[in-house]
């Protein structure tokens, strides 16, 4: 009996479950399962068409209650009006009646209801609306809680900090914060304020004060993680075949926490520059807007950090093959914004060297010079803008005390670099390079020795510099220049014995010209001394030949005078 009842309950349970999980109406028969059930029923003395009156009263009442529950399920599930849960069910009533007739052979009929879920439209709000809903007291309590609970785990603190804003901006959809379009199409002056401009001032101040207490190392890891979260869905990892994708989330919270971290602790970006230079994801052209946005945020907190990151990360990309004008314009907008900020010049000059790092290194200046003074055929629209920013960047590159150890080495490296550029052949570039080389000679006398060491590899450039020295002569260089010119002549003689070169001949001619023109006083003094000696001897001889005893006395006076 019990086993027979179990068979019936199993059939009812299957019917009920199949109806609930169905996605459409379909009649399916399972002969094997029917045979198995029939066999089980037969073994227990129950026919295949089992009737409730053959069961005990207790079992019959149980089955009837289950059937009543199923009927109630049908009436709720298949009524004319759709249920409030948003599900539309289409049911063939004849099939429902058939399954209710338990005695029919519809035992194995499976009814699948077709359910069409109505899409519930999610209410979308803007970044400003979501930010306005942040409760200040709740936020301050949250900051206090994560500071205490994760006192020695700043990385976890920062992740929970980001998670708070993630929940706060959960209702901000991509349509409300299209960050890719904002970064690609907005000028730098506008993109720099997005989305932090929407955050209430008390929340922003409290966040930045809290961030200020985190270490640079922890913030550095957090910044890299945040950038990964932003870029995760914007492009594939294949650098050679980058494919853009529409982000599934707005990422507003990541931009908010990143902006606050970089503005309050801009030195974090300084520490990340070496890593970013080695990671292509920061230098790919399609990801350039994010890098520009990051540097712009750091520059809001410290102009020196902004220019340092720009010179090391973005300046080398200006002459990159295949670089489009839009990206180049974005890079120039950023540096123009930095150098045009209030009191930018004194700030940048005072920070020309920080912790042993040059704000504009020798390598960066070389890139800048080549980009600003290209051949006429290579000039582009951006060249004029580079000409406008070049003077202040050059001033920053040359700023510093020439007596400091680091600056002395910088000047030596700079001299060697400009000597190579002076021989490039482009008139404007050669002129600028020779100007800087003369400046280096005046700032650091060791550059004369450096010049002597590299002379034979830079004969053409040396001729240009010698001409400039002659045209803009300064007595201050005479002491060191005479010695190096004599060394040049010796090297010219040895080199011309092996090969004849137009540059060598011109260099020898220029050396002779400067020696004869700029150092006549040494040769004149020798001649005067010789004439005095000859005249004195002639005077003594005349006195001896034509004078008497008085003449000897005169000679003795002269002799005592000369002694």
What does this structure look like?
The chain is mainly alpha-helical and 563 residues long. It folds into 5 domains: 116 residues, no CATH class; 164 residues, no CATH class; 95 residues; 118 residues; 36 residues. Helices cover 66% and strands 2% of the residues. The chain is built from 27 helices and 4 strands. A two-stranded antiparallel ribbon has the order 1-2. Strand 3 and strand 4 form a beta hairpin. Helix 20 packs parallel to helix 22. The longest helix is centred in the last third of the chain and has 27 residues. It is elongated and about 130 Å long. The protein starts with a helix and ends with a helix.
SS strand fraction? under 5%
> Radius of gyration, Cα only, in angstroms?
45 Å
Question: Biggest sheet: strands side by side, in what order?
Answer: 1-2
Rough shape? elongated
What is the number of domains? 5
**Share of helix, binned:** 55-70%
Count of individual beta strands:
4
Q: Tell me the span between the first and last alpha carbons.
A: 151 Å
In DSSP terms (H or I, runs of 4 or more residues), the helix count works out at 27
Q: In terms of per-residue confidence, which ranges show pLDDT below 50 for 5 or more consecutive residues?
A: 15-27, 41-55, 77-92, 103-116, 236-248, 522-546, 551-563
Protein structure class: mainly alpha
Question: For the report, how would you describe the main beta sheet?
Answer: 2 strands, antiparallel
Mean pLDDT: 78
């Amino acid at each position: 009996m019990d086993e027979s009842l179990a068979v019936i309950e199993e059939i009812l349970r299957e019917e009920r479950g199949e109806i609930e999980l169905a996605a459409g109406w379909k009649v399916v028969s399972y002969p094997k399962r029917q045979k198995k059930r029939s066999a089980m029923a037969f073994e227990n003395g129950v026919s295949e068409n089992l009737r409730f009156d053959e069961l005990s009263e207790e079992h019959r009442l149980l089955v009837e209650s289950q059937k009543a529950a199923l009927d109630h399920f049908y009436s709720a599930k298949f009524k004319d009006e759709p249920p409030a849960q948003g599900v539309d069910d289409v049911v063939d009533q004849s099939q429902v009646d058939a399954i209710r007739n338990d005695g029919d052979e519809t035992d194995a009929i499976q009814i699948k209801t077709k359910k069409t879920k109505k899409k519930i439209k999610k209410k979308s709000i803007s970044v400003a609306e979501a930010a306005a809903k942040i409760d200040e007291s709740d936020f301050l309590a949250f900051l206090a809680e994560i500071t205490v609970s994760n006192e020695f785990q700043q990385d976890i603190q920062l992740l929970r900090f980001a998670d708070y804003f993630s929940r706060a901006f959960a209702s901000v959809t991509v349509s409300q914060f299209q960050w890719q379009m904002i970064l690609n199409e907005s000028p730098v002056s506008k993109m720099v304020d997005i989305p932090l401009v929407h955050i209430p001032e008390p929340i922003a101040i409290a966040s930045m004060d809290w961030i200020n207490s985190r270490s640079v190392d922890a913030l550095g890891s957090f910044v890299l993680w945040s950038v990964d979260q932003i870029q995760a869905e914007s492009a594939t990892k294949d650098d050679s075949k980058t494919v853009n994708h529409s982000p599934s989330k707005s990422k507003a919270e990541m931009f908010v926490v990143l902006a606050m971290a970089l503005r309050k602790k801009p030195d974090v970006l300084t520490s990340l520059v070496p890593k970013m230079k080695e990671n292509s994801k920061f230098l790919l052209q399609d990801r350039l807007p994010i890098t520009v946005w990051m540097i712009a945020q750091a520059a809001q907190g410290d102009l020196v950090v902004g220019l340092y990151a720009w010179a090391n990360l973005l300046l080398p990309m200006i002459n990159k093959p295949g670089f489009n004008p839009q990206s180049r314009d974005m890079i120039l907008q950023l540096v123009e914004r930095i150098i045009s900020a209030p009191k930018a010049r004194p700030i940048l000059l005072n920070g020309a060297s920080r912790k042993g790092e040059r704000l504009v290194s020798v390598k960066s200046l070389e890139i800048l010079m080549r980009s600003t003074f290209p051949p006429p055929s290579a000039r582009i629209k951006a060249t004029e803008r580079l000409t406008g920013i070049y003077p202040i960047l050059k001033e920053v590159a040359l700023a510093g005390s020439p007596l400091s150890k680091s600056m002395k080495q910088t000047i030596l490296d700079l001299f060697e670099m400009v000597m190579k550029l002076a021989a490039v052949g482009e008139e404007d570039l050669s002129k600028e390079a020779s100007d800087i080389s003369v400046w280096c000679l005046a700032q650091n006398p060791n550059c004369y020795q450096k010049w002597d060491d590299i002379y034979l590899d830079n004969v053409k450039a040396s001729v240009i510099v010698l001409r400039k020295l002659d045209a803009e002569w300064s007595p201050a260089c005479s002491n060191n220049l005479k010695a190096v010119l004599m060394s040049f002549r010796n090297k010219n003689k040895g080199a011309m014995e092996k090969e004849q070169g137009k540059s060598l001949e011109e260099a020898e001619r220029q050396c002779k010209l400067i020696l004869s023109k700029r150092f006549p006083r040494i040769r004149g003094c020798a001649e005067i001394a010789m004439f005095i000696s000859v005249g004195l001897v002639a005077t003594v001889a005349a006195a001896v030949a034509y004078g008497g005893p008085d003449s000897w006395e005169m000679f003795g006076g002269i002799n005592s005078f000369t002694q």
